[in-house]
Structure prediction request, 203 residues.
Amino acid sequence: SVDNEMDMLYVSLENKTEFSGFQMDLRLPDGFEVLDIQLCEGRKTEGHNLSYNVQGDGSVRMVSFSNINETFKGVSGSLVQVKVALPEAPKEGDYEVALSNVIFTTPKAVEYRLSDTKGEICYYQVDLKSNGHGSVTGAGVYLEDTKVTVSATPNEGYHFVKWSDGATVNPYTFAASQSKVLTTEFAPNTYYVTYMVDGAVMN
Prediction:
């Protein structure tokens, strides 16, 4: 689930060797906070457990193992899900997420050390403009894939026509996938007046 206050990050693994335990350190950008970490249902077994704690350098160390030396299920897919609290007033841009000290262990206690890896949490800026005949709401900075809803309200005597990207719905909802500027197009209403002249209908 993704909203502008909370995000769920996933650590995925493609593995050819069966493994029973792992250790890894997760570092989030400043202003981001780990709320909870769990093993993903599709990969863990009943014998697996996971613990985590904050290190002196601010990273979060995750350790998982099986009490009965069971191996994790499958050879691909999400292994760990991390619930993250997001900053209250984020700025547009890419925020780096890093994994380090990654070690996987087989049932025979053979260790595999993986290279450090990085990912990103992305925020996009949505700006709104009007052609001067109404108002718009919904501008802001949004987390990637967050649902954004923008609305246009025409002034008296005008009506909404479309957004600058061609969308004609109002309110307009879309997933944040890039920074963009949307301009609304308003047009004057057309009125028809019917009146009588010497008993004849005139338009």
